[in-house]
Design brief:
- This protein has 4 helices and no strands.
- The protein has 135 residues and is mainly alpha-helical.
């Protein structure tokens, strides 16, 4: 349910962006409000970074697609390739495991398997950071 609401709010993002560009301010206000509410609901169960990336990615891709359909923007093969890339990345985010660390694998900082913390004097001699100073 949360993913469906998030996708619906992403569609509304494209609606409000298009409405704003055309001066349809009432439609802009309604769509923007509903879009933000949907984003907020989606963020209750979907990690904030993922939810925001999906919302922006889908909204931007739909906005550009609509502009190309209506002739406001030129159609090109490269735009289609890159828009497809955005959509593929959004689909990838949907299927990532979101456990305690976010993705499978060791964390980069702290915990088992992480890069060890360096102690003062561990790099470049007897002082932290390897910068030797005169005593």
């Amino acid at each position: 349910m949360y993913w469906a609401v998030l996708l619906g709010s992403a569609v509304l993002e494209a609606v409000w962006a298009t409405a704003l560009s055309q001066g349809a301010y009432v439609l802009f206000l309604v769509a923007a409000t509903l879009s933000m509410v949907g984003l907020s609901i989606g963020m209750k169960r979907i990690p904030v970074g993922t939810a925001y990336a999906v919302w922006v990615g889908i909204g931007a891709a739909l906005t550009v697609t609509w502009a190309m359909i209506t002739g406001e923007e030129t159609l090109s093969a490269w735009k289609i390739v890159f828009l497809t890339g955005i959509i593929a990345c959004v689909i990838g985010l949907k299927f990532l495991k979101s456990g305690a660390s976010g993705v499978d694998g060791p964390p980069l900082v702290g915990g088992a398997g992480a890069v060890p913390e360096l102690k003062p004097g561990a790099v470049g001699g007897a002082v932290a950071g390897g910068v030797e100073t005169s005593s």
